[in-house]
Write a structure and sequence with these properties.
144 residues, alpha+beta, 7 strands, 42% strand
């Protein structure tokens, strides 16, 4: 499901895994490297996580042509295993600081994830992230 707003993206997915496990997949560097893959051929070569409110993360993704995409941000809210909020931008891009809100809902042993990504500068950037997040969530489902 996608919420249609020019500057906000919302995706909902259900994973056949307990929410503690789905939550941890977003917080552990080894797990992030396995599934945070925004498109075919891209791989995550580095995930650094200082997992605390005010802590920062840095995720380095590499394309088949050796282009680097470095996602960086700060954790704003951590409520294990229900909610995770962090800022998101790319080093050296004009994306500006956006905000990702993850809500994890227990659905009888499965987990419904609601991903809300806010404050995109325009519709095109929102749509690019829609494709990227959907690819990542497909890989997350496989890795769980």
């Amino acid at each position: 499901t996608v919420e249609h707003s020019e500057t906000t993206l919302q995706l909902k997915r259900t994973f056949a895994a307990p929410r503690e496990k789905v939550f941890r997949a977003w917080t552990e560097p080894k797990a992030l490297k396995q599934w945070l893959v925004p498109s075919d051929g891209v791989f995550t070569s580095l995930a650094e996580v200082d997992f605390r409110v005010g802590g920062k993360y840095r995720i380095v993704m590499k394309s088949p042509t050796d282009e680097l995409y470095i996602a960086i941000g700060t954790y704003r809210e951590i409520r294990f295993p229900e909610k995770l909020v962090f800022t998101w931008t790319f080093e050296g891009s004009d994306l500006g600081e956006t905000l990702v809100i993850l809500e994890f809902h227990d659905r009888c042993g499965s987990t419904e994830l609601i991903l809300t990504h806010q404050f995109f500068p325009n519709k095109e950037e929102r749509d690019r992230h829609n494709m990227g997040w959907n690819s990542c969530l497909d890989h997350l489902a496989t890795s769980l």
